[in-house]
Amino acid sequence: MRSSSYYLAALAIADFGFLSVLLVVHFSFKGILEIYNREGWCQTFVYISTVCSTLSVWLIVAFTVERFIAVQYPLQRPHICTVSRAKIIVSILCVIALASQSYIFWIAGIINYHGDPECEMIPDYHDFMKVINFIDTIVTLIGPVILIVTMNTMIARNLLLFRRRFQNGSLDECLCSGQDGMELQRSQTQVG
């Protein structure tokens, strides 16, 4: 019923997918389930883990944007943060994550070290991966951290201002400050 539930459900699925791949890798190195170091499986597991980790980061950003809108523009939140819009955003993020990580199928493979096959990056792609790692660091670390910290700072600032106004004055003054407050005052004037 709530748009935030879709972000959280998608985040739970992405995190579960990432942790499941880690479990398979762990079992593979312990000799319990030796499928990770096989051709095809190697690329699939690396692809799933990178898609899930990318998706996880951007779902947190999307959820933070929704929280920011709810605090900054509380009267507009019901019109902006809808379930259908959340479904569209989750779908778009999934498509982008799936497409942006497709290069994994070409750069990951089985490398034989002293007769033991290991799922690794193919050595011919080391220079390409330096560029990809730089881009990935910006897209899945630096950019999201800046966005999340900025929005959470603004959320905290707005909540502190609201608290101060509430303690110093009436609830009407708290609600009637800012852009949404002006809309509330206009609607009260029109009704009265």
What does the model show?
It is a multi-pass membrane protein. Keywords: G-protein coupled receptor, Membrane, Receptor, Transducer, Transmembrane, Transmembrane helix. One of its GO terms (cellular component) is plasma membrane. The chain is mainly alpha-helical. It is elongated, with a radius of gyration of 23 Å. Helices cover 77% and strands 6% of the residues. The protein starts with a helix and ends with a helix. The model is unreliable at 184-192 (pLDDT under 50). The longest helix has 43 residues, at 126-168. The protein has a single domain (3-191), classed as Rhopdopsin 7-helix transmembrane proteins, CATH 1.20.1070.
What labels would you give this structure?
Rhopdopsin 7-helix transmembrane proteins; mainly alpha; 192 residues; elongated; 2 strands
Helix content: over 70%
Mean residue pLDDT: 88
- Write the H/E string, N to C: HHHHHEEHHH
What is Rg? Answer: 23 Å
Structural class based on helices, strands and sheet pairing:
mainly alpha
CATH class category: Mainly Alpha
- SS strand fraction: 5-15%
CATH superfamily name?
Answer: Rhodopsin 7-helix transmembrane proteins
Strand order of the largest sheet: 1-2
Tell me about the biggest sheet?
A: 2 strands, antiparallel
Oligomer: single chain
The CATH architecture designation is Up-down Bundle
Number of domains: 1
Subcellular location: Membrane
Organism: Ignelater luminosus
Transmembrane segments: 7-29, 44-65, 86-111, 131-155
Keywords: G-protein coupled receptor, Membrane, Receptor, Transducer, Transmembrane, Transmembrane helix
